[in-house]
Write a structure and sequence with these properties.
The protein has about 180 residues and is mainly α. Helix content is about 80%, strand content about 0%. Among the domains are: about 70 residues; about 40 residues. α2 runs antiparallel to α6, α3 packs antiparallel against α4 and α5 runs antiparallel to α6. Keywords: Coiled coil.
């Protein structure tokens, strides 16, 4: 018997995968809305550039800040996914203090999946660095392009990490079902 949902959430402080997926979708929608608003402001600046150098510097700094914020949000989501996958066997198989956890196929895939998520997060770093470099040079148009490239790289890395997490979760669920069937037989 696994732990009840309420007890698992109270002990672990994390929701179950279905609830976490809904929360992630809401967060992604909010992030997309914020990015669209920022991109609209950047495009308005490109087609109607201000005359003051301070406005250019502010836009360049905003582009670099957006790239850094996107990378930070991506890392936080990946850490949450990794923590959820590490704690999922506890919910499936019960309390380790009362009985040892079963080693099932699919659980061992967590480590490669986590390594893949870390590698995809590292792929977004060059684009964010390019945005910061463009902002430092005081080139608003280059900063806008670099920020857009950083956003695209972060979105691609996040999508790849979510796919890897989904595959790992499917493998764990299948392994847990097989173990339960074997135990019941």
């Amino acid at each position: 018997m696994g732990l009840p949902v309420e007890l698992f959430e109270a002990l672990v402080g994390l929701p179950l995968p279905q609830q976490q997926q809904q929360q992630q979708q809401q967060q992604q929608q909010q992030q997309q809305q914020q990015q669209q608003q920022r991109r609209g402001a950047m495009l308005l600046f490109v087609f109607n550039p201000p005359n003051s150098s301070s406005s250019r510097a502010e836009l360049a700094a905003a582009a670099a800040a957006e790239a850094g914020q996107n990378q930070q949000q991506q890392q936080q989501q990946q850490q949450q996914q990794q923590q959820q996958q590490e704690l999922l066997p506890l919910c499936m198989h019960g309390n380790p203090s009362s009985k040892p956890l079963r080693r099932v196929r699919g659980v061992e895939q967590q480590a490669p999946a986590a390594a893949g998520r870390r590698s995809t997060a590292a792929q977004a770093t060059p684009a964010a660095a390019a945005a910061a470099a463009a902002a430092a040079k005081g080139s608003p148009a280059a900063a806008v392009d670099a920020a857009a490239a950083a956003n695209a790289a972060a979105a691609a890395a996040l999508e790849k990490a979510e796919q890897q997490a989904a595959r790992a979760a499917d493998a764990e669920a299948a392994a847990a079902a097989a173990a339960a069937a074997a135990a019941a037989a």
